[in-house]
Design goal:
single chain, 78 residues, alpha+beta, Double Stranded RNA Binding Domain, 2 helices, 3 strands, 59% helix, elongated
Length: 78
């Protein structure tokens, strides 16, 4: 399931060349803060996939924290 999400997100990637040691740059506008670079296009794509995976884990952790705190707050009302 996560693999499919990462693959779908990679399809939305915008790639460009930049003036840098790692000239391949990619970003996914729909995922705030998700970007990567690489020396070759495939390295950039691998780095972008790893960044997407990290983005997913951060979002899941933040959502879980929010749900746990809301649940605990609701339980204190009873």
């Amino acid at each position: 399931m996560i693999h499919e999400y990462i693959q779908a997100a990679l399809e939305l990637a915008h790639y460009e060349m930049i003036d840098d040691e790692e000239p391949y740059y990619a970003e996914i506008a729909a995922l705030q803060g998700v970007w990567a670079t690489g020396r070759i296009l495939e390295e950039c794509r691998r780095n972008l996939a790893a960044t997407i995976e990290g983005w997913i884990l951060v979002r899941i952790t933040a959502f879980s924290f929010l749900i746990n705190n809301l649940t605990m707050g609701a339980l204190r009302c009873f």
